Amino acid sequence: TAVPVRIDGVLDDAAWVFSPRVGELRLIHAPERRPAYPTEAAVTWDDTFLYVAFACTDPAPWARHGTRDDRLWEEEVVEVFLDPDGDGRNYAELEVSPTNVVVDLLIEAPRAGGPNARAWNVEGLQTAVKTQATGWVAEMAIPWAALAAAGVSTAPADGSQWRVGLYRIKRP
Fold first, then answer.
1. What are phi and psi of 98, to 5 degrees?
2. Whole-angstrom Cα distance, residue 47 to residue 125?
3. CB atoms within 10 A of CB 112
4. Is 139 helix (H, G, I), strand (E, B) or coil?
5. Each residue of 31-66: pLDDT tens digit?
6. Mean pLDDT of the chain
7. Which of 152, 155, 154 is nearest to 85 (CA)?
């Protein structure tokens, strides 16, 4: 994007208005079915940040955890997985809850979570969440400079292909 993105939980910035949507996220175990609580995502970037936004349909989003690096994956959350080289090692996982609590993990290898993964922090990460009657919106500004341990130091070059996962957990 050539225009600044304001991280405030509202997707009315020109960068979001003109960014193509990733499309509606699908159920991981039944991708042919439309979820009862749809989620859309968008991604854009500039020289300083990777920006990710999720718009989650949900009349009653909830979260109990309130401290950074808590076990957010046990609750409702949106997640970004960044593995630019696609090898499944040393990738970044960032999660944001409906109450704007964050967990940022550096996963060294598949199923290698735990305290070591949670010790890593994305310095300069900006997040915002806004709830409304129909659901919640989460925005993230992830600084390229903070992702060196995940194999990232600059914005992608034109034509680059990265392995990225966007995910939402909706719990009853």
1. -65, -15
2. 15
3. 13
4. strand
5. 899 999 999 999 999 999 999 999 999 999 999 999
6. 91
7. 152
Give the whole-angstrom CA distance, residue 153 versus residue 15.
Answer: 22
Total length of the chain: 172
Q: How far apart are CA 32 and CA 94, in angstroms?
A: 26
Q: Which segments of 6-159 are extended strands (E)?
A: 21-24, 39-45, 49-57, 77-83, 91-96, 102-107, 126-132, 135-143
For the entire predicted model, the pTM comes to 0.93
Give the angle 42-8-168 at the CA atoms, nearest 5°. Answer: 45
Query: HSE (CB half, 13 Å, CA atoms) of 53?
Result: 23
Residue type at 128? A
- Rounded distance between C-alpha atoms, residue 163 and residue 60, angstroms: 32
Residue 21's contacts (CB-CB under 8 Å, 6 or more residues apart) are: 40, 41, 42
- Give the CA count within 13 Å in the CB-facing half-sphere of 52: 23
Q: What share of the chain is helix, strand, coil (3-state, %, to 5)?
A: 10, 35, 55
Dihedral sign for Cα atoms in the order 77, 69, 130, 79: negative
Q: How far apart are CA 10 and CA 50, in angstroms?
A: 17
DSSP reduced 3-state for 43: strand
pLDDT in tens, 104-136: 999 887 766 666 788 889 999 999 999 999 999
